[in-house]
Design a protein that fits this description.
Elements: H1 4-18, H2 25-41, H3 46-60, H4 63-66, H5 71-87, E1 102-107, H6 114-127, E2 132-137, H7 144-154, E3 159-160, H8 168-181, E4 186-191, H9 199-212, E5 216-222, H10 227-240, E6 244-248, H11 257-266, E7 270-274, E8 282-284, H12 287-294, H13 300-310, H14 313-325, H15 330-341, H16 346-350, H17 369-379, H18 383-386, H19 394-404, H20 408-429, H21 433-441
Parallel strand pairs: 1-4, 1-5, 2-3, 2-4, 5-6, 6-7
Antiparallel strand pairs: 7-8
Length: about 450
Amino acid sequence: MAFESLADKLQSTFKKLRGKGKVSEKDLKDAMREVKLALLEADVNFKVVKDFIKTVSERAVGAEVMESLTPAQQVIKIVNEELVRLMGEKEEKINISSNPPTVIMMAGLQGAGKTTTSGKLGGLLKKQGKKPLLCACDVYRPAAIKQLQVVGSQLELPVFTIDGSRDVVDISKKAVEYAKLHANDVVIIDTAGRLHIDEVLMDELKNIKNEVNPDEILLVIDAMTGQDAVNVAESFNKELEIDGVVLTKLDGDTRGGAAISVRAVTNKPIKFCGMGEKLTDLDVFHPDRMASRILGMGDVLSLIEKAEQAIDEKKAIELEKKMRTQTFTYSDFLDQMNQMKNMGPLGQLVKMIPGVNAKALEGIDFDDKRFTHIEAIIQSMTADERENKVKISPKRKERIAKGSGTSLNEVNSLLKQFEQMQKMMKQFSGGKANKKLARFGKMKFPM
């Protein structure tokens, strides 16, 4: 998970502060030293850390903390506000041209995930009602054009290429002309990268920029490269004047130093972040939500958005009716499970819930492959078994286990889980439901 090690250290530091009724200047100084070490260990740029600690310390020793009834919470509030400010304060959107097509140029080093990100961005814009055209301008890396075509095919996006041509300026120019003729309102140019920054790479990118005059230049950076990511961002920004950054592989970077440093060093916003390998795993970067997750305050808004995207509203209404009438079946269970799966890895989703202790979750198995086993078990049932029309006897259990390629224990475990769910639904469909929901509504999540 992104920022996991940093989040653990910061939350541990603030837990000590919370245990104190009154916070002295020495307590604050000790806490700030631990915050500083945590940020440096997370590979955050040294100058950024120095400025951050100075700002937080100046605010924290003021009257707003010392005279507060809950000084520890005030310190956390200040750290949260400064983290948000450091990462950009608010989400930044793509510059959409008033005169289509909007031209987006993707730049970056080889291996950062530029080609896949170009496709992911196209898919994201398509969901927003746009008609993107992908343009293959990486004519040097073997199979780069084919890779973009495969990604485009999977997302049902057109890909513009010119067979045999190595003139990337001409390709990008003709892609824009093609887009105008075919009503594509966005052109995403996937440019070539290098293993390192060189003059040839920059000249090529400048030539494309001068010819097509892109509305947006996005720099794609591998978050796992830490301080190198900051150096790369500085160099590209100096040569190209980028409009924003896309951080890839953020889900695999437990430190998160790049995300905190890039904005501060380049003064360019992080616009998107790659949070997985699926072609749908590209999220808008929300500095406030990311800061909340780092400080263990959850990310409810992102959780709700993922649910809205993944869950079919009509099916949700039907499910609510089945819960009330106690007619919930294994088919319904499978359908709900598939919708949950579309929201993303379960382990990541749970950590978005406010008050959830990440350390406490370490021993819990969130293996998403178990979903596949459950799916196989339910699909190995007969229609009557799936609809609860017959009791599943020991012989039927054996048949289901063999048919699904799972063990009898796994079948029994699923049946038991389903029975428990039915019992819970009975409770909520009775007269006690409103009281329980009312009580839940009054619950307060710990900070």
